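Support case: user asked for a sample of complex input and structure output to validate their parser. Sending the pair below.
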Amino acid sequence: MNTRVYLLLFACLIFFQSCFEIVETVFLNTDGSGNFQLVLNLSKSKTKINSLIKMKTVNGHNIPSKEEIKDKIADIEKTATITAGISNVKTTIDFDNYIATFNCNFTQINKMNDVVKNVYAKEDGKGKVPEKIYNYTPGSKSFNRLNLFSFKNEYKKLSNADKEVFATANYTAIFKFESQVTTASNKDTKIAPSKKATMLKLNALDLATEKKSIENKINLTN
Amino acid sequence: MKKYITILSIFILSCFCATAQNNLKLVPSSASMIIRYAGENFMKNVPIKKFDSYSFVKDGFLKSLQLDKKSSLQNTGINFESDMYQYVFKQDTCDNFITLLQLKNEAQFIKMIKANYKYTSKIENKNGFSMIAVSNSMYIGWNKSMAIIVSSDYQTRKNYYDQYPYTTDTTYSAAVAADTAVAYSEDIIEEKMDTLPLTEEDLAKQELEAEKQRIKDSINDFKYELWQQQQEMIAKKQQQIVAENIMTKTFSGNIKSIENDAAYNKIIDPSAHISAFLSTENVISQYQNYFKRGYYGIMGNISRSVAEPADGFKSSVNIFFDKDKLRMEQKSFSPNAEDAKLALDVMNSKQSTELVNYVNPGNIGYFSMSINTEAMANYYYSFMKKYLSNSGYFGNDYSDIIDIYIDLIQIIVDEKAIAELFPGNYMFVMHDLKPQIVDYTDYDYDAEYNRKEVKKTRKELSPDFTFVFQTKKDAFMEKLAHLPLKYAEKEHFDYKEKEGYYVYTFDSGKYPIANLYFMVKDNKAFVTTSLDVINMAKTNVAFATDAATKKSILDNNYSFQLNTKKLIEKLQTQFTTDVNKKISDYMLQNLGDVKMESSVKDGIIQSTATMNITGKHSNSLEFFFNMIDSVNNIIEKDKQEQEKKIY
């Protein structure tokens, strides 16, 4: 998943004091190509956001305007579009329900790692650039979802009010394959009856405190 | 969190000083603010041993004083059975915040000083006292029985740009010109980059200009740095002179004291645990320099505007830690007859009985205000005259013209008509926080984890409130309420006229409020979320407001009440983390209602605010410490649990 997007939107989540849901979906073909979807859903907090977005600052934090949010998403779309191996990039933002989506095709899943790096570089991200979030070689029998990014230190610094944001928030990762899944290393992973899809749904608080992880090694039959 | 606790603790520490010895005689009559801590009462409420036992004292406060956690506040050498005063005082262009303490053990006090500051400064022996510079602005002095802490701030630092103004400083002008030229050329380069290729000669020229600019900048930066260092040295020297001077006068007792000041004694209650005295004109004049130092001195006019009309006002806050409540008594008056009359005229108003009708029993809170708008308008004429005649733009030379000008405005502006539109009676009632159903988008997944959008609903708190005010211009207010109807369709908002009222409907499920109602009837204008209130107003029905609330509203210019239990109960439904739930549980069990009333009594504007306490506390001071300790413990325990989860 696009870690930098997490970082960018993390600020919005805190400012808006909102419970949220992130859904990451990857459709992976055996040859390594496929489709990536990311959804950020803040609709559970839309009444609060509708009120807050009219303000310039809350608790000293700047509140991004709708235009600023649109610009930021457009920047990400532009960066992804010019990344080699990435096509059909589409982003949407629904300000009625506060749902943002990012969708693209890739020739190789590893190209998504380049998208993350490029967005990170574009946004002048400080610290180490996450080298890989996905690892899959066509023909190999395992798909890896890595997590080299941690915000446990940032989380620890948050106020109790800000921590409320994570208590009811969720992160969901859905991975779909042409071949069948044999095992998944993350014990919270559910495997579909067809064995061609997995779902990992975690509470954001558990992720922030690193009680649980989004890391997963999925073994395939091909 | 610990930082705040430590700051609070220092404040609370002051509370342990008693009135056994009278340090008031050492407080100058020209002090702008004086805080008195009546320790005898504090000692009765919370003994030092009890205070020592709090974890935030052991782990925070004692540690910050470099004392062992098994130590005691007694080991600071400070005599907690003697009095303490803090005051703000201006001398020789320095603003000073001074703390007066009595000592019982000089050796222990010196030990504490050395433990904290031995590496920063050395102790100097002066005439009858010892002194140490803790920093460039803070000095501690003491003898065998008393200590004084002076925090001094030099106020007349010169502005660098006054010395080297933009217009006359050729270097700077050249730098600005060069800067502008470079910036302009950079802009041109930016704009033309794509269309006009730059020659090597152009680039060399630009590089030369940029290099010249860098040299000029570095010279200017160096000059600026030197200037700041020089100003800092001047300030440090002046601050030390002033601190020494204050200490010498204090230890020799050579001070014209406020002890027998009539205004001070009129509004300071000796039985209070804490008293604060504010001489408004002294405060403003002392802090005027802060404003004057603003960019180009523009802020200087603001300071004058605040200073002059407040001239002569004396205010106090007396705090009492009663057994079952925390009580704050505020008093304010002016010895200046003209100022006093203006202020009392503003308060010469009585709340309308009709507005009380909308305070429902079991409300979460209300705020009632009744002031004389006409008197308020007249007050502003006086304010404007004093402001403009002292303004830096006009000066005293034009004060007569300004006086006539304000009189002319007074003739043109019909303050009686304004007072008819808004006579000055206002009421805000938070009836309730009601759960409102709002929808949101969620996702369901089939057996193969295909995502499908679904609409779900959840309960959210929605404020149910009424704001109603008196008006004698019903027709005008009705026109105002009617106006949005004309633009509703064109601007795509839902504003409709109903039978005798108007309703603005928010987009469904998008805002915490569903409808906002507007109505003008019988000299009252309503803005409310409650259709019940609208119907009540239409049929002249009133809530059965309890007698005590009615009395509080009708007998006072300001009346405020907050039902904290009800508010916390409502808010608790929105908390999800354990730590917030635990803190709110504690508050629910220990906090009582908050009330405030304000009116004129004996020619003085007097306010009383109370916060009731419940739970197992000997008194409200102990409750205060218990609350800090308990909340701190809850947060620390949660942090430890989170650490366990993380590592």
